[in-house]
Design goal:
Largest sheet: none
Strand content: under 5%
Radius of gyration: 12 Å
Shape: globular
Helix content: 55-70%
Distance between the termini: 28 Å
């Protein structure tokens, strides 16, 4: 777990609660280099959102990030 990654995720101001839940779940698995690979099932368990919703949120976040670069 990376405290820095968790701190970053917790302090983000996001309009979509599912995005924040996914990022917190990913941050909870981050190694010291900031890399993490939790499963969709694990993120679903952490957040209470369905696996379908988690997959959609990840896709949306990736698309949103591509549009900001």
């Amino acid at each position: 777990m990376s405290i820095e990654a968790l701190n970053w995720a917790l302090n983000l101001q996001l309009d979509k609660p599912v995005w924040k839940a996914v990022l917190i779940g990913i941050a909870n698995h981050a190694n010291p280099n900031g890399q993490a690979w939790p499963s969709v099932a694990r993120l679903s368990l952490y957040s209470g959102f369905s696996e379908k919703t988690i997959r959609a949120a990840i896709k949306q976040m990736c698309q949103a990030n591509c549009h900001t670069n």
